[in-house]
Task: structure prediction
Amino acid sequence: MTHAIRGLWPALATAFTASGAVDTARTLAQARRMLAAGSDGITLFGTTGEGPALTVAERQALLEAALADGVRPEQLIVCTTACALGDAVTLGRHAIALGCTRQLTMPAFYFNHPRDVGVVDAVTQLVRGIDNDALRLLLYQFPSLSNVAFSHASIAALAEAHPGVVVGVKDSTGDRPHTLALVRAFPQLGVLVGAEPDVAPTMLAGAAGSVNGLANLAPRLMRRVVDRPAEVSADDQALMQGLLQLLELKPDMPFVSAYKTALAEQLGDDGWLHVRAPLAPLDNTEAQAIRAAYRALGRDLASL
Result:
């Protein structure tokens, strides 16, 4: 099966200034690092990128800046998730007008537990609002964050209603049996995996690739996993596990703040410590634990 979106698409971290504004220069430098490391493209404004906390204008400006910086439209997945359906349509139309046909959206999540018919209707209105047959849309499955899931029935209904437009699912459940069930149930759709330990096993079963946060720290590691899922070395498995353990060193750490602390340590750049409210930087004990554990890995992960 040849899927419309496949390979490695790091969920790009978004940098902020101390005042909370988007730090465009740092964010674009991170995008260049991901592409130079061999990523197929990058994903803007996802969960790791704090996308839902950015305004429509901020997202539009950063997308335009990325394209002006030399990122090609086909190297981008643009997440249009928004509480207001009209904002998602605006973001989708803006992206596709710039040639960015690969897009990603969560189910409407402002109200908890909507019926499947409402979930399907919201995505249908998004597709019709964008109104462009070139659109290639991934359904973003992350119910532990959004509190709303795409059921198999809603995925089937959307794939049938919008063939060639709804092309895949980005599964961030971290539930391997769930991901494998998606791969089996929807062979016509590309399933891109968010949970890094699940990438190789699910790709062997037919998944199309990965959109994940860990690639911000170790893009070449994740490139190897995606390229050779049947041959992931014991060293790479251990390295992946060591990096993921950074997120769990202390209880209840926001994973975005933990990723950014490790990235600040890796790059020697504390400008990466800033997050957008309601997230908050880690306290000193948490941050020092992550920095020490990162150093203890003893690797130049940016180049390994």
